[in-house]
Every structure is written in C-alpha cells, then in structure tokens.
Amino acid sequence: MKITVVGAGNVGATAAQRIADKELANELVLVDVIEGMPQGKGLDMYEATPVEGSDSRVIGTNSYDATANSDIVLITAGIARKPGMSRDDLQATNAGIVKAVTEQVVAKSPKAILIVVSNPLDVMTYVALKVSGFDRHHVIGMAGVLDSARFRTFISMELNVSVEDVSAFVLGGHGDSMVPLPRYSTVAGIPLPDLMDQATIDRLVKRTRDGGIEIVNFLKTGSAYYAPSSAAVQMIEAIVKDKKRILPCAVMLQGEYGIKDVVVGVPIKIGKKGVEEIIQIKLTPEEQAALNKSASDVKANIAKLSI
Fold first, then answer.
1. Calpha distance 274→59 (Å, rounded)
2. Cβ pair 98, 75 in contact under 8 A
3. Domain spanning 2-141, CATH architecture
4. Where are the domains of the chain?
5. What does CATH list as the number for 144-302?
6. Are 172 and 264 in contact (CB under 8 A)?
7. Do the domains at 2-141 and 144-302 have one common CATH topology?
8. pLDDT tens-digit series, residues 242-256
9. Is 174 assigned a catalytic role?
10. Cα dihedral: 149, 178, 299, 72 (round 10)
11. How many other CB atoms are there within 10 angstroms of residue 97's CB atom?
12. Residues β-bridged to residue 263
C-alpha cells in the first residue's frame, strides 16, 4: 500500500505520523511546495519508525514524481483559517490550490482514492472530484468523522462517561449548517434524548457546530489538526484494511436523500473500493429540511467557483 499526503503542515504532518505509526503504508510520501520542510519532517518520522516498531518507509519531497502509483492520496494543502475568517473566506484561495494539487496527483496516480481535508471541505471535495474526473466513489471528504468525534467528546464531557460508549452522528456540510442527529446518537445504546434535556442537547449541538472556530480562537494563529488528522486516518485505515466501516463522510450525491449534484456529508460504507455504499437513513421532516438547507448552502458556494 502506497499513501501520499499532500501538505506537510500541521494536519498533513500529523496525519502522516499517525499513518506511519499504525503501519498503514509500506511507502508513505509527504509532499509540499516548501523546500526542505517535507524532507525534514519525513526523515524525522522515518527515524521514529524503529521506536514505534513500524516498517513504513517515509519519503519527504517537493516533487510529485515520488507520489506515482499511490493507492490513497490525502489532500490537506491550503491556507488555514484565522480568527474572524469563515470557511467561505478560504474558498477562492484554496480552490486554486486544490485544483493544482489534484491535477498533479491524478497525472501520477490515476487509480488513487482521494481523501480531501482542505477547507471549505465540501466545496474542495467537489473541486477534487471535478478536476480529477474520477468516479464519485473515489473522492471522499473528511468532515462527518471529525464533527461526530467533537459531538462525542462534548457528550462524554457533559455526562462524565467514557468516549468509547458514546456514538454520535453528524450529517450535512462541514460548517455552520452541519446537521447533528441527537436521536441517532447514543451512550451505551441509550438514545441521547433519554439522558439529557433538549436545552442541553441544543447547547452541545451548537458547540459542535462551532468546534473548529473555538479552537481557532484559542490558538489565534492556527487551527485544529490533532482531531482532523485522526479523523482522516480513520478513513484511510478503513480503506487499507477493507473494514467496511459506516462513517459519515462528504460525497457527491446523485439523488440520495433527494439531493443531486452536490457534495454533502452522509453515512457511507467505506472499504478498499472507497465509497462502497451510501447509507440512506430515515430522517424526520425537520432533519430532512436541515440537510436540504445544508446542501443548498454548499451548492451556493460551489456556484461561486471558477475552475
């Protein structure tokens, strides 16, 4: 298994380290435009493999030549969000970056599965899909796994229980219009509405929606990367090990949930073929309306693209 991580910043480098530590790749390539950075970080990771007991070979490079014939490519390239900056503010700059990256990746690895982390996530996944020309099952956005992890964390904190016993589900776009589903969220199988009142649920839902900017406001000069990298690597592990995980991910919908021609977060079965099935769960009219609004927001941003 050969995996490439594009972007050696905080998210990319942390994801690469997790991939190497978990020995998910025989060959791991870290590529970035900044001269020396991927080489230095890649060598540092490689030197950690004897301690971690991993035989992943890590290569850092500024050239896409070394990425040839990758099975999975994780795209993290783009500028990070700063205080006062919405995800939409990132769109024009990052669309150009993701377009250029995708063109170079596809030229070297025409059979790869692409996982997109760059923000605004849903729109950048759309950019990668359109520029690559790949089947929609091979281009997946990382959003719902991260948002669900944040929701699980906040539920665990509120109830003072193990995160292992908390299951949560978040659909829709990655941002202000995401759609957490409390009735599909459980603690040891107990539905969340049986454990806390609606006001508490609403407070945790809002904190989940604001999860990214909460961290940006703390850091001042950066954005989250530990949880985003973990979320991306969980998706990669599901592909590498053909685990058939059911995870909420951003994919192009073509009629599912009554939504077409837009990338939005829904539950999928993810395995060695990428998106192996889009799971359609029953939504209440209110939940469907929220998902429709989220998809409309993404579609409106897609309409602003010039790719």
1. 24
2. yes
3. 3-Layer(aba) Sandwich (3.40)
4. 2-141, 144-302
5. 3.90.110.10
6. yes
7. no
8. 999 999 999 999 999
9. yes
10. 0
11. 20
12. 252
